[in-house]
Amino acid sequence: MLSMKVCRDLSKCLVTVARCSMLQSRLPTCSQTTIRRSYGDHSGTVSGGRDGGKGSDDDDDGFVKPSNYKVFKDDDSSVILDMEEERALLDSQLSADDTHSDFEEIDQFAGFDVSRGVSGVFEVEHLVEVLQKNNASDVFVVTVPANVRYVDYIVIATGRSQKHLMSIADFVHKLFKKKRRPSDSIPRLVNKKPIDWIALDIGNIAVHLLTKDARKNFDLETIWSVGEKFDSHLNRPVDSLVSLLNEHSFSLDNLEPVDFEHVKSH
């Protein structure tokens, strides 16, 4: 004979099983039909569902697409190009666009006189104009005496930075090549690192481009305008050790090579 406790537990299990059966009977049955979604030819609306839909096999890709999505097929195109043909077509279109482009190449020398000067490739007035248009500041021009036989003019200008110096020098160099004759030698840019001083010999003119600090340090204007005797750098007090070495040194200027033939004869 079963005990009262076992009977109560068995009764509870039977009630639970009955409730599960009742809940299962209320759930919708799931058919084995594959869910498909297809598109109408022109409506653009999505149809289909558990009923299987009626779309064509080509349109059924298994993905839900937005209503404004349009499917293109190979049959819709009159010509189908491969990768190489597409690239060739694109290149031809770009070439045609370049040929008929309304844009013109910018002339970097527009507004500048590209004809050669009389006294040299550059006339000094034209060179000063070029420097000023390239934002060089404090342009200094001095005439070199004829007996020096160096150049006709020395032009000194200041740039804002090392990069600005290179930009000015590069433009002057390119404009020189534009203006020169075949017989005119192309000048060479002379600079040192750090680039705070660039020298450019353009034949009749020597151009010196310096940063503000370098120009103040070297003071080229004083040397070429008032002479060496007024230059503070050249007339600094001489070091005592240098003076001592100069006093006790001898010059080799008056020495001549020995005549070995004459020595052998005696």
Structure at a glance:
The protein has eight helices and seven strands.
Walk me through the structure.
This protein is an alpha+beta fold. The chain is built from eight helices and seven strands. It has helices at residues 4-26, 83-99, 124-133, 162-179, 212-218, 220-225, 240-247, 260-265; strands spanning 36-39, 46-49, 137-143, 153-159, 189-191, 197-201, 205-211. The strands form two sheets. It has a five-stranded mixed beta sheet. A two-stranded antiparallel ribbon has the order 1-2. The chain is elongated.
Q: Percent range for helical residues?
A: 25-40%
- Main structural class: alpha+beta
Instruction: Note the overall shape.
Output: elongated
Number of strands: 7
Average pLDDT rating: 75
What is the fold's blueprint, element by element?
Elements: H1 4-26, E1 36-39, E2 46-49, H2 83-99, H3 124-133, E3 137-143, E4 153-159, H4 162-179, E5 189-191, E6 197-201, E7 205-211, H5 212-218, H6 220-225, H7 240-247, H8 260-265
Parallel strand pairs: 4-7
Antiparallel strand pairs: 1-2, 3-4, 5-6, 6-7
